Amino acid sequence: MQKVMSISNISDETTTEPPSPSPPPTYKLFSIRFLRLHGRDLFAASANWFLVDVVFYTSNFLLSHIFSSYSHNPSSSATTNVYDATFEVAKLGAIIAACSTIPGYWFTVFFIDKVGRVRIQIMGFFFMAVIFLAAGIPYCWYWSKHEQTKKGFMVLYGFVFFFCNFGPNTTTFIIPAELFPARFRSTCHGISGAAGKLGAIVGTVGFLWATREVEDGDDINQVYPDANRMRTAFLILGGVCIAGMFVTYFFTKETMGRSLEENEHEHERDKNVEDEEIGDGQSLAST
């Protein structure tokens, strides 16, 4: 027992002191210096996440309308119940996920360190904009012709989900996690994600507004009233993708090939350069 006590006493005496706390940060979140160093990055990450969620969630909502147009059969519409219709929409979503969504993720995993985050994000926004415009402008033509044009439209629409995941739907998660300093990383990533969820709300509500039925009867005399509303939704989504492409090109920094420590040191160098510029300005003012 004495040996045990003596060993414990020795261990207590030989324990090292706790490490000294790290120095406090020189600037706080949302301070003027933070906005100068990271405001542009936070804007780019939040805006891109907002725009891609507008497109992604609206595209999922459009599936039910597209499937109803694709499977419309007057002879069987009376016998189809809501459960069968829901099952068919879910089956269509599973097919798109297996053929477009999941392969898009794997393409991103393979190319993200070869092509770069920014290039993949710009490419995804660009091809989604092209697909939405190509599907939205001649929307009536797809559904007024024979069965082959309908199948072609479904394949074209599936590429939206492929380029969404081989593009901004993946990179918007990665870039904020690599771009900001360690003490701000989780907060800035959360702010960017919150902007994305706001985009999801705007997308779903905007979709309901764009595809609403006109109450005053203006669309009664139109040949394809539902097609005209869907065309509006597609053109709006194409414009959102173009906006995301420009935000990515002008505001988003590339983080490929750099570790988190290198990004941290780069921000510190920017801070030191700013301090030197401020000091030089003060010395010139004093003279």
Give an account of the 3D structure:
The chain is mainly alpha-helical. It has a domain at 37-72 and 81-212 and 224-254: Growth Hormone, Chain: A (Up-down Bundle). It is built from eleven helices and no strands. The longest helix has 39 residues, at 32-70.
Q: How do the strands and helices of this protein lay out in sequence?
A:
Blueprint: H1 2-14, H2 32-70, H3 74-77, H4 82-115, H5 117-136, H6 139-144, H7 147-165, H8 168-179, H9 182-210, H10 225-251, H11 260-286
Helix pairs in contact: 2-4, 2-7, 2-8, 2-9, 2-10, 4-5, 4-7, 5-7, 5-8, 5-10, 8-9
Low-pLDDT residue intervals, each spanning 5 or more residues: 1-8, 10-14, 74-78, 219-225, 277-281
Going by CATH, what is the homologous superfamily of the domain at 37-72 and 81-212 and 224-254? MFS general substrate transporter like domains
Which percent band covers the strand fraction? under 5%
CATH topology of the domain at 37-72 and 81-212 and 224-254: Growth Hormone, Chain: A
What is the annotated CATH architecture of the domain at 37-72 and 81-212 and 224-254?
Answer: Up-down Bundle
Derived structural class: mainly alpha
Order of helices and strands: HHHHHHHHHHH
- Taking all Cα atoms into account, the compactness measure Rg is 27 Å
Helix segment tally: 11
Head-to-tail CA distance between termini: 76 Å
Q: What's the mean pLDDT score?
A: 78
Beta strands, count: 0
The proportion of residues forming helix, as a percent range, comes to over 70%
Report the top-level CATH class of the domain at 37-72 and 81-212 and 224-254: Mainly Alpha
Shape verdict:
elongated
Largest sheet: none
